[in-house]
């Protein structure tokens, strides 16, 4: 027992390489050698991911797609397929849990693993990391990078060094060797503004920050000084948490031109409700509260919510609640720039699903589940019949916790055509 307590921790951070790009290339071999941007090609859209060759040209995630296209006019722009990404993510996480049950998924394409007890009889950490990468490639056909270190902070730093498609290890006796010369801006979690303040105060490397007195650093950073000083010393005691509860699921749509028409807004809400319901079913979650988010042309943003009669993952029920919140706003509405639907107070589906007294509601839910399975494979091949006849919006998907899937804003004023626009 004493030897177990003293066994050094080995934490792995597994991060998929350009996950959305890799997923698109997996399904579309004709793009495997092409520079690729994943994101909706519209005036208010942002890049979800870019291939590594484009990153060398300055293209990066969260950048406006229009700017990315100016930097790389030769790039292919691929429409995101979130249902497909969720399907691949499930396969990745299942593969990781075959290595150890101590897996903490932090986003659709990355996770921490505590390998401390999984190494016995299985070789070195580096050998196990290589097998993890091979297992992921065998299961889903995608490349992954793995960082190894004594804690989560350093493992995250190591996986960045491992990219693309490699393994990088920071053993305990090399932590200072790795950290001390590191420029302060390269410490994970240090933004440019914080780095600038630290450099002005004389701290340009992690080693200088680690050697500083916390009170001196506090004069620059305030309450965050102690945490950052500990990270600069390589200290991070956070455990690998095997269950992360999503607190909410949401989808938003930004119109290419501001909208006043209630019918257009209601169609958009219905489409967004289907996207949220699809995500809820994929996560095996029901929600008790539906929230409406709306942003006017002057960027003033309002949120309204209501509690459902029963926990639900059915798009029709979510859309009805969101529509009632929309109509409860003072009319006529100012021009609308953005509208969104969010499902809050999530619970496991098995714990809260109740049979409806209306059999048509359960039939509609069964139909929605069938749509989920088809759209996961064929990129949105099916849409609700009520949305036929106009170009549907591409969606911005959000998760309610800090590990959310990367978001992208999307244009288009009329939701609803079947198939891809």
Task: Give a brief outline of the structure.
By secondary structure, the protein is an alpha+beta fold. 39% of the residues lie in helices and 20% in strands.
Notable characteristics:
Dna Ligase, domain 1; five-stranded mixed beta sheet; 20% strand; Alpha-Beta Plaits; 16 helices; globular; five-stranded antiparallel beta sheet; 13 strands; alpha+beta; 421 residues
How would you portray this structure in words?
- The chain contains 16 helices and 13 strands.
- The longest helix is centred in the middle third of the chain and has 21 residues, at 262-282.
- It folds into three domains: 1-170, 2-Layer Sandwich (Alpha-Beta Plaits), CATH 3.30.70.270; 180-232, Orthogonal Bundle (DNA polymerase, domain 1); 248-399, Dna Ligase, domain 1 (2-Layer Sandwich), CATH 3.30.1490.
- The strands form three sheets. It has a five-stranded mixed beta sheet. The protein has a five-stranded antiparallel beta sheet with strand order 11-10-12-9-13. It has a three-stranded mixed beta sheet with strand order 3-2-4.
- Residues 1-5, 352-358, 388-392, 394-412 and 414-421 have low confidence and may be disordered.
- The protein is an alpha+beta fold and 421 residues long.
- The chain has helices at residues 2-6, 19-27, 52-55, 65-71, 82-99, 125-140, 152-162, 175-179, 192-200, 206-211, 214-221, 225-232, 262-282, 315-327, 349-352, 359-378, and strands spanning 11-16, 36-38, 49-50, 76-78, 103-107, 110-114, 144-149, 167-169, 248-259, 285-296, 301-312, 336-348, 396-399.
